[in-house]
Amino acid sequence: MTMDRYVITGKQRLEGTIRVSGAKNSSLPLLAATLLAEGTSTLLEIPALADITHMIEVLEHLGCGVMRQDEALIINAGLLDSWDVDEGLMRQMRASNLILGPLLARRGRVKISRPGGCAIGSRPMDQHIKGLQQLGVKVKEKHGYIEAWADQLQGADVYLDVPSVGATENIMMAAVLAKGTTLIRNAAREPEIVDLQNFLNKMGARVRGAGMDVLRIDGVDALYPAEHTVIADRIEAGTHMIAAVMTEGDVTIENVVPEHLEPVIAKLRQTGAQITLLDDSVRVQQRGRLKGFDIKTMPYPGFPTDMQPQFMAMLSCAEGTSIITETIFENRFQHVDELRRMGAQITVEGRTAVIRGVETLEGAFVEATDLRAGAALFLAALAAEEATVLEKVNYIDRGYEDLEEKYRRLGAKVRRVIPNE
Ligand code: UD1
Predict the structure, then answer these.
(1) Which of 118, 212, 222, 417 does the annotation list as catalytic?
(2) Fewer CB atoms inside 10 Å of the end CB: C or N, the chain?
């Protein structure tokens, strides 16, 4: 597949207002959750992103009717006539594995091709599988497929060895229709888990505890379609905040839940940025050179791994030496070589990167290797001297809606080049 590229002319001060779209990582489990009820659910503010299109294709393959009507995505999961998802669909996006829990709950049966590793790490599924087995699911793994079935799901006491976001969501979505009570201990506490709990409860489920490390789910007999507005994307918001800081700009970011961004805001204040919190927006102003600092990625409410590459781009041109430790994914430093091409001074030893801040980054030919690495290079290009050609921006399209349009309105010089156009 040929991919688009951006041509970005850096050193333009960003100024104005930018609105954050609905959260990709909330939209994906919410879409999967619509499988739990017969009938038509409506989700509002689902972003138009490549990953969302893939999830819609998975739902359609399973028999759902999906329609976009202005801001609403309408999903009719009345008739499910399939319970397996083939390799082609699974390979496009890991998060398709979120259909495991809902299909087991609704149909008692599911078969998916096992998601492979990806650019940032090996990404095992053991916690998903262990949790589902505790609910009474039988699992067979053969020829690269995971097949699972259960006559009747039974509530259970599940302990996760790591607070996996996807495992917590899959087990929640299976447990809502199980007999009896399920506890998920050491559950992920991300805001997306709270959003999923809210939607499931609107559908008639009985889930409590999201946002804390123990979830309690009292199984019910059936769920009903519901309407829900997805929360704002905290990673998108954080990316815009960094753009404002790196261009010494003045940007107001709308549709933000400041509480979801606490670790990001705390760190950005350490650069010397002025951050003003309003009800559902944040204003970021920066003057002068940034100061460096250290970061360690952690599960929520710690510093998010999905913001690590963007912070590295920023720290590359901050004063002093900064250290970033990545504890969630083993291979999430692929942006380092590309940032180096732009003049960054970074050395990596295992899971630690040492960044010696340079005065300024320089435009170069660089390539996105995954979604957030792409975002990091986009930010670096905004702050760099002269032009950057950023290849493979389709990775960025997986997680950022209308990026170039949104940034042009802030004063950025960015152009998308589509091959053979
Ligand atoms: C979600 C996010 C992703 C984010 C990640 C961590 C979505 C669609 N994606 O991914 O953007 O980077 O959370 O915040 O929401 N693990 C196991 N066994 C398992 C599952 C996970 O060991 O069965 C490990 C992983 O290798 C990783 C850690 O747990 O080290 C966190 O992964 P997890 O929270 O599951 O990430 P995802 O849900 O895939």
Answers:
(1) 118
(2) N
Atom number in ligand 1 closest to CA 121: 26
What is d(CA 18, CA 41) in angstroms, rounded to the nearest whole number?
Answer: 29
Q: Is 317 among the catalytic positions?
A: no
pTM: 0.96
φ, ψ for residue 190, nearest 5 deg: -60, 150
pLDDT at 352 over 70: yes
Q: For residue 188, which atom of ligand 1 is closest to its CA? A: 34
**Averaged pLDDT, 375-390:** 98
Beta partners for 207?
217
Residue 304's pLDDT is what? 98
Distance CA 336, CA 113 (A): 32
Integer CA distances (angstroms), 62 to 101, 136, 265, 397, in order: 14, 23, 41, 25
Is it the case that residue 1 has pLDDT exceeding 90?
Answer: no
Q: How far is the CA of 37 from the centre of ligand 1 (A)?
A: 26
Residue 299 C-alpha to ligand 1 middle, in angstroms? 9
Ligand 1, from 30, 96, 100, 123: best to mutate by most atoms within 8 Å of Cβ?
Answer: 123
Closest to 77 measured CA to CA, from 135, 37, 123? 37
DSSP state of 206: E
> Would you say residue 117 has pLDDT above 60?
no
Nearest CA-CA partner of 308 in 296, 300, 317: 296
Structure tokens of 404?
């170039």
Which ligand 1 atom sits nearest the alpha carbon of residue 98?
8
- Nearest to 43, CA basis, from 61, 68, 20: 68
- Residue ID of nearest Cα to ligand 1 atom 26: 123
313: pLDDT strictly greater than 90: yes
Widest pairwise Cα distance in the chain: 64
Nearest CA among 200, 189, 183 for reference residue 162? 189
| Cβ(309)–Cβ(324) below 8 Å | no
